[in-house]
């Protein structure tokens, strides 16, 4: 059973859209230009330090995220409520509140004759002053004029009671010097200021959705608040809040793969990190093993937990320039290198050549932002485009300016990616040498209150300017206190109590030989804890702590038997709301799939739970390879587009290995010039051959 009519963002449809955008001029897309014949396989877990497991039990082989519907995430609010889209109705009392607003009238009756002039003032951005003669009017009637104009024009105008040249009292109307937006600011007294609503999205990241909401609702991006970002590839539901916006306006938002509902007004806004966790429902397709073997593996996972690695999502999609390489450059204070890493050409990472790709190549060849900017379309708002335009405007070496014009949370993401790489590597080495038992010198939280509160510290310090709304999302979190385990209390703790630091200037390292590992690993990048503190707090890293082993709570599972590998086995929130019939397992289905459902604390990766269960690399390349192998074994006809994708992946691996050997030989023999290292794949690639 394939439910694309309800969940219309399936893989096949998305491929069709990409193909259409190439051939149909009326369907423009930033992904234009020729297709690349070969693609890099992308980052693998071993590239980011993910190597160990919590048990030696055999895994349950299965395919992850084969369908978008295979990965469902629902946010858990601070009160423990699982956020679901269950209604799209407007609150019943909203109409009553609107009646309250409609009661705002001009009791003087003077405003009507000036409305046309005020409309022109606002539309033409005129500096003209309009005066309404209110000589002899009572204070109450003058107040009604102020309220009426405020209701009708919001902050587009300013009104003041003054005396004119004839010493007569009048109300002066001017265009406001700062117009934040065109929303009505008059608000029902009985209604709380903040609209909260459930956002359900499919195959879109949270940042993208916020941008779409901003444009359609005509509000600033930074006024749209959420507790945290959610996975792109899947169906996710989370809460959003916006100040002084009517639910009826949000209900009118029309965008593909975005749904809103469960509207409620509250007295406070959402804060970044204000969630208890996330509830996951994940399907693993074509699993191997009996129900007894699955049950045994699940019980092992419940008992021993999983290594709490930072998953591949933390490190971006690029193998040529992963986010940790940019973060390392920023942490080292080498801002020009960080810019180069962002703008480094990636000729074999996308099937389509975009204007961003062309701009990267122009920058790399010329280091001239003006030349690179010529390659960009006017509607290109990517990070690369913003940086290139900043360099063109402020000068080709104004690197810090360039980082100040991109979202600060993104800059911090680069830095945290580098911290995460160090953390993953240290934890893997620690487990290899000491296993999964606490040792003397390991760290634990001093206060037990932190045990179930993994903290991602966003280090912005005094960077925050309270006059700028966009900085409200940059939360300065306190680094929790830790203490080392001693010989005397070693027996009181388990591996679930042990926390290891992300490197920074405000953390302790383990009081054993592992502390030196941190120092040595940072030294390889010419860094120390002290160097991670910067005068510019945007680039400063305090560090934080993270449990090295964690558990999935309230873990449940079930088996689905089905005949079609592409059957949608789980209902999304919008499908449940639309009364779509759930999938029913077939007694003798050709395929056997596992659904697991569990809860995780914030900042913990569900893919690491799946990894422990399957004992497989969770990278997209590895999952695609499993799917390909299955198609070949089952003798299932593969659509041409998918066949080409498989060939690209397979050829890429062989191509890179062959190129590496050839170019290494040529380089040693001084046959080739201009030979460069290519990202983290540990091979040499000639610029000429890549292009």
UniProtKB/TrEMBL annotation:
<protein>
    <recommendedName>
        <fullName>TRUD domain-containing protein</fullName>
    </recommendedName>
</protein>
<dbReference type="GO" id="GO:0005634">
    <property type="term" value="C:nucleus"/>
</dbReference>
<dbReference type="InterPro" id="IPR011760">
    <property type="entry name" value="PsdUridine_synth_TruD_insert"/>
</dbReference>
<dbReference type="GO" id="GO:0008033">
    <property type="term" value="P:tRNA processing"/>
</dbReference>
<feature type="compositionally biased region" description="Polar residues">
    <location>
        <begin position="17"/>
        <end position="30"/>
    </location>
</feature>
<comment type="similarity">
    <text>Belongs to the pseudouridine synthase TruD family.</text>
</comment>
<keyword id="KW-0413">Isomerase</keyword>
<feature type="domain" description="TRUD">
    <location>
        <begin position="305"/>
        <end position="551"/>
    </location>
</feature>
<feature type="region of interest" description="Disordered">
    <location>
        <begin position="1"/>
        <end position="36"/>
    </location>
</feature>
<dbReference type="InterPro" id="IPR020103">
    <property type="entry name" value="PsdUridine_synth_cat_dom_sf"/>
</dbReference>
<dbReference type="Pfam" id="PF01142">
    <property type="entry name" value="TruD"/>
</dbReference>
<dbReference type="InterPro" id="IPR042214">
    <property type="entry name" value="TruD_catalytic"/>
</dbReference>
<dbReference type="GO" id="GO:0009982">
    <property type="term" value="F:pseudouridine synthase activity"/>
</dbReference>
<dbReference type="GO" id="GO:0003723">
    <property type="term" value="F:RNA binding"/>
</dbReference>
<keyword id="KW-0819">tRNA processing</keyword>
<dbReference type="InterPro" id="IPR001656">
    <property type="entry name" value="PsdUridine_synth_TruD"/>
</dbReference>
<dbReference type="GO" id="GO:0001522">
    <property type="term" value="P:pseudouridine synthesis"/>
</dbReference>
């Amino acid at each position: 059973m394939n439910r694309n009519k309800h969940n219309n963002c399936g893989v096949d449809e998305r491929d069709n859209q990409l193909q259409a955008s190439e051939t149909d001029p009326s369907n423009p897309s930033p992904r234009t230009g020729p297709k690349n014949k070969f693609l890099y396989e992308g980052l693998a877990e071993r590239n980011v330090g993910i190597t160990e497991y919590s048990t030696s039990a055999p895994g349950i082989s299965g395919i992850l995220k084969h369908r978008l519907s295979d990965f469902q995430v629902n946010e858990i609010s601070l009160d423990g409520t699982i956020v679901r889209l269950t209604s799209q109705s407007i609150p019943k009392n909203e109409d009553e509140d609107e009646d309250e607003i409609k009661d705002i009238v001009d009791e003087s009756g003077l405003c009507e004759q000036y409305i046309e002039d005020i409309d022109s003032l606002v539309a033409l951005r005129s500096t003209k002053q309009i005066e309404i003669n209110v000589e002899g009017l009572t204070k109450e009637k003058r107040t009604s004029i102020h309220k009426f104009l405020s209701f009708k024009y919001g902050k587009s105008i300013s009104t003041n009671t003054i005396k004119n040249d004839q010493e007569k009292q009048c109300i002066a109307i001017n265009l406001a010097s700062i117009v934040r937006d065109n929303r009505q600011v008059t608000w029902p007294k009985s209604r709380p200021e903040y609209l909260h609503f459930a956002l359900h999205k499919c195959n879109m990241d949270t940042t993208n959705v916020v941008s779409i909401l901003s444009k359609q609702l005509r509000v600033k991006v930074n006024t749209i608040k959420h507790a945290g970002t959610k996975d792109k590839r899947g169906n996710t539901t989370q809460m959003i809040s916006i100040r002084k916006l009517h639910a009826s306006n949000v209900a009118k938002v029309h965008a593909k793969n975005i749904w809103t509902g469960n509207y409620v007004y509250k007295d406070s806004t959402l804060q970044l990190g204000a969630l208890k966790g996330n509830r996951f429902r994940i399907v693993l397709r074509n699993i191997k093993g009996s129900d007894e073997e699955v049950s045994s593996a699940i019980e092992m996972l419940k008992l021993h937990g999983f290594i709490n690695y930072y998953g591949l999502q933390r490190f971006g999609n690029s193998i040529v320039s992963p986010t940790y390489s940019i973060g390392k450059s920023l942490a080292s204070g080498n801002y020009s290198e960080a810019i180069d890493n962002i703008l480094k050409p990636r000729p074999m990472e996308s099937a389509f050549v975009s204007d961003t790709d062309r701009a990267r190549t122009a920058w790399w060849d010329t280091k001239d932002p003006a030349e690179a900017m010529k390659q960009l379309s006017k509607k290109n708002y990517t990070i690369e485009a913003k940086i290139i335009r900043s360099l063109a405007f402020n000068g080709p070496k104004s690197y810090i300016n360039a980082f100040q014009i991109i979202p600060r949370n993104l800059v911090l993401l680069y830095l945290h990616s580098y911290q995460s790489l160090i953390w993953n590597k240290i934890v893997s080495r620690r487990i290899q040498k000491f296993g999964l038992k606490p040792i003397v010198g390991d760290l634990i939280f001093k206060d037990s209150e932190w045990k179930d509160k993994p903290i991602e510290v966003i280090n912005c310090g005094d960077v925050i300017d309270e006059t700028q709304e966009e900085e409200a999302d940059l939360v300065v979190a306190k680094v929790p206190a830790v203490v080392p385990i001693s010989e005397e209390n070693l027996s009181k703790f388990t591996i679930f109590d042990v926390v290891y630091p992300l490197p920074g200037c405000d953390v302790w390292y383990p009081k054993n030989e592992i502390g030196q590992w941190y120092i040595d690993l940072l030294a390889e990048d010419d860094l120390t804890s002290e160097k991670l503190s910067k005068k510019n707090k945007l680039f400063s890293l305090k560090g934080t702590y993270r449990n090295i082993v964690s558990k999935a709570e309230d873990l449940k599972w079930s088996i689905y038997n089905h005949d079609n590998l592409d059957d949608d086995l789980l209902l999304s929130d919008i499908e449940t709301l639309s009364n779509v019939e759930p999938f029913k397992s077939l007694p003798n289905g050709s395929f056997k799939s596992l659904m697991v459902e569990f809860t995780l604390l914030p900042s913990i990766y569900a893919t690491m739970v799946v990894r422990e269960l399957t004992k497989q690399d969770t990278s997209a390349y590895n999952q695609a390879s499993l799917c390909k192998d299955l198609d070949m074994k089952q003798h299932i006809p593969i659509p041409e587009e998918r066949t080409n994708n498989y060939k690209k992946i397979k050829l890429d691996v062989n191509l890179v290995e062959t190129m590496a050997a050839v170019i290494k030989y040529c380089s040693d023999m001084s046959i080739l010039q201009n030979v460069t290292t290519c990202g983290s794949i540990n091979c040499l690639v000639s610029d000429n051959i890549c292009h």
